[in-house]
Specification:
Blueprint (H helix, E strand, L loop, with lengths): L43 E4 L25 E7 L15 H7 L4 E2 L8 E2 L2 E8 L2 E6 L13 H13 L7 H4 L4 E8 L2 E6 L6 H5 L8 H4 L18 E7 L3 E6 L10 E6 L5 H10 L4 E2 L5 H8 L5 E3 L6 E6 L9 H10 L2 H8 L4 E3 L22 H10 L12 E2 L2 E2 L1 E7 L3 H15 L4 E7 L1 H5 L1 H4 L4 E6 L1 H5 L1 H7 L14 H12 L3 H17 L3 E3 L1 E3 L3 E3 L24 H6 L9
Parallel strand pairs: 2-11, 2-12, 18-19, 18-20
Antiparallel strand pairs: 1-5, 3-4, 5-6, 6-8, 7-8, 9-10, 10-11, 13-23, 14-20, 14-21, 15-22, 16-17
Helix pairs in contact: 8-10, 16-17
């Protein structure tokens, strides 16, 4: 049994976006404070309505009323930091937006310990490789067509056939769903290719459902530009790359009509412009963290509320493990030892957070190895570099190999001032151990191409919640080129642990293997967390003050907008109102 971990601070709210091109913020804590320690057994219902002593929740009722609604609003304007296209799940997307349109079988996300039925009325593991889901019978798509088991089977098949996409590998590899059997209109069975104890609590809480009647004739899913059709509480009624998004409430949503009738989301990429718009009242909220230097001025503004948060997200320094000298584990270990994470936190984020010295999986998640430590140790860094025959022969302060200086670049998005400052500090810290680093600022679009082009030594970017809080994604990151590239780049020790993880048929055993993978990664990291930030969030409560946190989705998400009793029943709030 793993020890229970609780949220570090009661009542905290988590912001949605740390910066442009980063993903959603998550907490990794649940309202229950419990963890999924016990492995499921055959014929045991492992996902069901929260009160297991009561009959299953009726398909027409999202759950018991436990709190009153915060009120309603006709229209909210929220500044969004990036253009995510027309919300095609197979192309560019941002889950804060797609979650408004699409629902999943379980709620709210894979970042809580006890996901609850949402589109499904129950999910049950029948044996190590088989799960069964029973669906609500009162759900319709935005165009009025009924949601059925055929849509579930089609969704999995379409993601399997898609050549790329955020969810593809979570049905083809981690886990591998070989077949979805349609038992009847409201019952499906998932058959996995190897044990899949996480399928219920992680995969089905992560996979958005798609309408078969809309997508069945699509030849190239990535090319679709039509506005999406989902079952979610909002319809996307307008999208423009310049003006942004307009969402209208779906009054027929099975959980009840949303509390806000219309969401207008202009795209404002520049942080200064976005927060100026908040100060002047042009927008009601901004979907990104408030820069540290603006926190106190906003606190002093009587028309703005600032909420302190502790997001499950951080900036990272990604290393090109396929390029010398980053292909040497000792060199990567030396870089990690040279990074003064506390100095980065104090200087870049004004001390608002924690030193990132506990590894890549954020320490607030139940999936982080509890004993992992990555301390700052310049002396150890120098010893490792000496052992690689990287020495300063000419006395100029820069180490050389075969007469050439050990030099590399740190790329960073030109529109991210905090990341630029972090990169500049890293140059100083690496220089202190004899390494010559320089900062190269790139257009945000060019930064997005680095992962596929591999044209970099290193770069600073935001580590997304999905990568640092989802245990299946951590495993997949060893194979995708993100943290490693198995089997293209040999790493026998990691490959062996991945195979042991796949062979495990309980959550407990898989967690033990996961912890071993994390320790191995940190012995020679391919990505170095820079600091775990706290994140202030600001909005204008005079327009609407109903924003609440959902683990994995911050403040600006559908759980702030659906009837509050539905959000509570879905276990979607970190600190649900009494």
């Amino acid at each position: 049994m793993r020890p229970t971990r609780r949220c570090p601070r009661a009542g905290r709210l988590v912001p949605m976006v740390l910066a442009v091109a980063t993903a959603l913020v998550a907490s990794g804590c649940s309202t229950s404070g419990q963890q999924p320690d016990d492995e499921p057994t055959a014929s045991t219902t492992v996902v069901a309505p929260a009160d297991s002593s009561a009959p299953p929740t009726s398909p027409s009722e999202p759950g018991p009323t436990t709190t009153t609604s915060p009120g309603t609003s006709e229209r909210l304007v929220v500044a969004f930091p990036s253009d995510e296209g027309p919300l095609n799940l197979f192309a560019q997307h941002e889950e804060a937006l797609t979650e408004l349109v699409y629902d999943k079988l379980l709620a709210p996300s894979p970042y809580v310990d006890q996901p609850q039925p949402w589109l499904a009325s129950s999910v049950e593991q029948l044996d190590p490789v088989t799960w069964e889901a029973r669906l609500r019978d009162d759900v319709t798509w935005h165009d009025g067509e009924p949601f059925t088991a055929a849509d579930v089977a089609f969704t999995v098949d379409l993601f399997k056939r898609s050549p790329s996409g955020r969810w593809t590998h979570h049905v083809t590899d981690t886990p591998r769903i070989d077949e979805v059997e349609v038992v009847d209109d409201t019952t499906v069975r998932f058959h996995c290719g190897y044990p899949c104890p996480f399928l219920g609590t992680v995969t089905l809480a992560d996979l958005p459902m798609l309408p078969e009647h809309v997508w069945s004739d699509v030849e190239d899913p990535q090319a679709v530009v039509d506005l999406p059709v989902g079952t979610g509480p909002y319809r996307l009624t307008s999208y423009d790359a310049t003006s942004g998004y307009v969402f209208e409430a779906n009054g027929d949503h099975f959980a009840g009509a949303p509390m806000v009738d219309e969401l207008v989301m202009p795209i404002i990429e520049d942080p200064a412009t976005a927060f100026t718009a908040l100060r002047t009242g042009e927008v009601d909220a901004v979907a990104r963290l408030v820069p540290p230097e603006l926190v106190e001025p906003f606190r002093a503004d009587p028309d703005i509320t600032v909420v302190d948060t502790s997001p499950l997200l951080f900036p990272e320094l990604r290393l090109n493990f396929g390029r010398p000298p980053f292909d040497q584990p000792e060199f990567r270990a030396a870089l990690s030892a040279a990074v003064d994470r506390q100095a980065l936190l104090d200087t870049v984020w004004l001390g608002q957070g924690r030193s990132a010295d506990q590894g890549y999986m954020h320490p607030d998640t139940p999936w982080a190895a509890p004993d992992l430590s990555t301390p700052t140790d310049p002396a150890a860094a120098e010893r490792l570099l000496d052992g690689l025959d990287m020495v300063d022969d000419d006395g100029d302060g820069v180490r050389e190999v075969d007469g050439a200086p050990v030099a590399f670049t740190i790329k960073v998005a030109a529109n991210e001032p905090t990341w630029i400052r972090a990169a500049e500090l890293l140059v100083e810290q690496f220089g202190a151990v004899g390494l010559e680093a320089s900062v190269e600022r790139l257009d945000p679009g060019a930064m997005g191409d680095l992962f596929s082009s591999r044209d970099f030594d290193s770069y600073v970017i935001g580590a997304p919640t999905h990568g640092v809080a989802d245990p299946t994604q951590f495993v997949m990151s060893q194979e995708s080129g993100y943290l490693w590239d198995l089997p293209e780049v040999p790493y026998p020790e990691m490959a062996d642990l991945v195979e042991q993880w796949r062979a495990s048929d309980t959550i407990e055993d898989r967690t033990d293997r996961l912890f071993e993978m994390e320790r191995l990664l940190e012995s020679a990291p391919t990505s170095i967390p820079l600091y775990y930030p706290n994140g202030p969030m600001a909005f204008r409560p005079g327009t609407w003050a109903g924003w609440v946190e959902s683990p994995g989705y911050g403040l600006f998400h559908k759980w702030s907008l659906v009837p509050r009793e539905a959000a509570v029943a879905a276990n979607a709030l970190v600190n649900p109102p009494e």
